[in-house]
Amino acid sequence: MHPIDAEKLVAQIQWELQIGSQAWQEGNEGKARVCARRAVAWLVQALPHWGFTSYGSHVGENLRRLSGDESLPESVRLAAQRLQGGARAQLHGGLYSLYPLHDAGLILRHFARQLGIEQAIMMMLQEFDLCNSSSDTLP
Hints:
139 residues; mainly alpha; Four Helix Bundle (Hemerythrin (Met), subunit A); 7 helices; 65% helix; globular; disordered C terminus
């Protein structure tokens, strides 16, 4: 595997969160949800490069595997479950994220600690006001 440039990875995640935050402010929840999912995917798909578990090669698979991994904290699994749900889940009473960017932040914080990029990720989450989210405790 090719080595991952941590600085580039953080920049890619930041770009997704920036676009997602802007979309959220404009009332485009769908776009914000997509950006939140992609931000998570950037980090999760880099995990094997650091010797961690692979959660698949695309965002849908990433979220499914994260939500089912009993070794992860329940809050991370639930955030992944909520991020999987979209408009269809809303229409049919399924589980979906009310705060997709916050759920992404919760997942990002968890893995950033393990990868040694916690400070960069936390600064970014603070910049977008995605720390201590209310979604951390949502069912």
